Amino acid sequence: MATHIPTIGHWYQDIAVHRLFQVIALDEYSATIDIQYEDGEIDELDLDSWSQMTVAESNPPEDWQSLFVLDEEQRLFTDDVITSGSSSDLLTSLEPDSQFGWDEF
User: Could you state, in order of their start, the residue ranges of all structural domains in the chain?
Assistant: First the structure.
């Protein structure tokens, strides 16, 4: 039985199947946990399934960062996000919107 509260970014081992995974997201509204196994496969668990699992906190695998490295073929099909300047420049350029009277509150 899982006695650990899942924490985003932490690695766990499912002792029953000897498989490492990282918690990548928690959704309190739908009571689900998104996990990514060490081979890159992504899965979703509900909290009931989590509570039935036998898990132990674990160290990340040695090559866990390779999960996030894209090869050339994968890069062709990704959307690149391009921003101009730094994010602080974007925030300083914003001005209150007086057209709708929102700055009066």
Answer: 11-94
